[in-house]
Structure formats: C-alpha cells, structure tokens
Amino acid sequence: MKLNQLLFFIGMTIISLNTATTQTMQEHDDKSKKILQMVSDETEKNITTKIKFSLTIKGEDINESQNGFAFLKGEKFYYKTKGTDDSSEVICNGNTIWTHMFEDQECYIDNLEDIDNAINPKEIFTIWKSGFNYKYVDVKTIENQNIHTIKMFPSDPSKSKYHTVLLKVNENKKQIKSAIIKTKNGIIIQFDIKGLKSNPTLNDNIFVWSKDKYPNVDIIDNR
What we know:
The chain is mostly beta strands. Helices cover 11% and strands 47% of the residues. A 12-stranded mixed beta sheet has the order 7-8-9-10-11-1-2-3-4-5-6-12, with helices on one face.
C-alpha cells in the first residue's frame, strides 16, 4: 500500500493521571464520554462536511508530512493530499474506492470491504464509541478556547491494531482539534483539523472516479 493511502486506512482513531487527584476513574470516564458524545452529536447533524487538515506520519522508515482536504457525505468520501514527494486523491462511493497517484499517473481500484483497516474519514468523530476505553486528561485554555485532552486505548489490546489514541477536543466549537494515533507497529500519525465546514453543497459526481478527466492514467483494477 502506498504511503498516501495511509491517511484513512491505518488506525483512526496513556498519559497516567496523577494519583493525588480526588476524581475516580468512573468520573473521568463519564466526563470523557460527555465531551466525545457532544462531538458526535454535532457531527451527525451534518449531511455533508468539508475538512481541511494537516497530517504527519512517522515510523522507522517513514517521515512524511501532508496537507489536504476531505469531503464527507454519509458513507461516501473524497480526500486529496499533497506531500513533499507526492500528491494523491482518494474517492469512495461507499462501495468502490479509487486511489489516484498523480505523479505515478496510476489509479488503483478496490472494493472498500477488501481494504484492510479501511474506515470512513467520518469515523474519526465517532471512533470512541466501540472498542476503546478512555481517560480524561486535562483542559487548557488556548486563544479563549477550552481544549480538552482525552486518551483512548483498546478495550481488548490483543485484537486491536492501535496502541493509543490521544484526542484534543475544542469544547467551544464542539469539534475534534487533533488526534495522535499510535499503532502497534510503531507508526505515529498526527492529524490536525485546520478547518471544518458544515453542509457544503456537494455534487455526488465528486464521489465517483472520472476516467474522462484523466485519460492518460493507468488503471490497476484489484477487484
């Protein structure tokens, strides 16, 4: 799998609390759940969403930074990234996924269900609902915004590809500000949301590959 495909196919989405605190584990969990539920409720109001983001991927043989944007509509998604060495766009109509590598002039076609670890980008806002325990860490005020930090870790580590996920949530905007994802194979992904627009007007054509638009691109059909 190409590096640029890592964005939503690697795991999406524990700083130990000081034992001197008087809060119990349950109180921390309840506070985390309330904040995360707030984000999910706000996100699920949207029929469509546009996200601007930056991404850093680091590992033993990886050190890559990218900027990009994504469009989300139900189970459909589109995102485009530009890195130091390559640019790509990924298109999904909910069943089929096209990965277009601009510099290589190649487009890979796969069934979404056949892609290991594939998730909809929208799931970064609801990933906490299943398979994770979580701890409330702290809150800091940054530029008059309350930023909460929540640490998530798999409820069954033996069955998870994740090590930990560290979320920062903007309480005022009811949005995830950033996520740091650590996988068991030593990859660290930092995903920072630079902007989020609710309910932009999107044509469904954006979620389907257009062969006519790129007539010189080689098609590699893996279905």
